[in-house]
Amino acid sequence: MTQLNGQVALVTGGARGIGRGIALALAQAGADVAIADLEHISSAAQQYSNAAIGGFTAAQQTAAEITACGRRSLAIQADVRKKEDAARMVEETVNRLGGLHILVCNAGVVSVSSVEAMTEDAWDLTFAVNVKGVFLSCQAAIPAMKTRSSGCIINIASIAGKNGAAGLAHYCASKFAVVGFSNSLAKELAPANIRVNAICPGILRTQMWEYLAETLKRPNEAKEDAWQRYVKGLIPLGRPQTPDDIGQLAVYLAAAENVTGQAINVDGGVELH
Ligand SMILES: NC(=O)c1ccc[n+]([C@@H]2O[C@H](COP(=O)([O-])OP(=O)(O)OC[C@H]3O[C@@H](n4cnc5c(N)ncnc54)[C@H](O)[C@@H]3O)[C@@H](O)[C@H]2O)c1
């Protein structure tokens, strides 16, 4: 598959999980891909208690995998919560890979708390990464896309952006925000021939779900049993999604010249709107 030959993509949070799957799928479809990620994960919500998980070493490994499949790549250390980092990741991508055609805003965090017990830190972190990070990344990329009179932005929302979930009010609110932001930006940028869509993944066993299965398991329930309970209980097709599933839709959206303003589920039938 080479329909993205000659195009340059930037994937935030591309070191591991869904972002890595999207980056590899775009590269296999012909794109050169820059990976932006944190040096290490720090979170007031403690979902990433193991600082060795992911981080910039993982971003460099993903970039090396892309290079190994014959595309150009680079790993950029950037925190999407910071305006100057968002600007720098776009600038480095344009300077070193020759442009920016596809931006994938994938970086995101989750934590679990009732609203009654929720700390302001948990709320603020969720919105800083999941919502402000998307805004800053898009804002930084728009001028580079306008110079080419075309572009494709893909924001990673969630089925949590289509329906609420107990214990996840802050996360769901942030993902509803991503869907609303993407719809609005699609209308704003259509005259510039820049398309904006959101992908709403279902349930994938990334580090995010390693944390969720551990946190949401019932008393005396094994983590593995909790995972199976969610997969079998929630997903009509009865199987979890994979990073490659999400990557395939990203490749489609990158090439679909008449598709904009959509928030498309990849969830085995959980949400039907
Ligand atoms: N796993 C799921 O079931 C699922 C379902 C729906 C939506 N999502 C969404 O998909 C996206 C990716 O999730 P994942 O499951 O791969 O999670 P993950 O935790 O495995 O990966 C997230 C990546 O984002 C990076 N990141 C976090 N904060 C960042 C910041 N401030 N700046 C730059 N990078 C940052 C992390 O370092 C990591 O590489 C998230 O937006 C998440 O909300 C995940």
Walk me through the structure:
By secondary structure, the chain is α/β, with parallel strands linked by helices. It folds into 2 domains: about 10-200 and about 240-265, Rossmann fold (3-Layer(aba) Sandwich), CATH 3.40.50; about 205-240. It is built from 8 helices and 7 strands. It has helices at about 15-30, 55-70, 85-95, 120-145, 170-190, 205-215, 225-235, 245-255, and strands at about 10, 30-35, 75, 100-105, 150-155, 195-200, 265. It has a 7-stranded parallel sheet with strand order 3-2-1-4-5-6-7, sandwiched between helices. Strand 2 (about 30-35), helix 2 (about 55-70) and strand 3 form a beta-alpha-beta unit. Helix 1 (about 15-30) packs across helix 8 and helix 6 (about 205-215) crosses helix 7 (about 225-235). The protein is globular, with a radius of gyration of 18 Å. The protein starts with 7 loop residues before the first strand and ends in a 7-residue tail after the last strand. Nicotinamide-adenine-dinucleotide binds near residues 41 and 208.
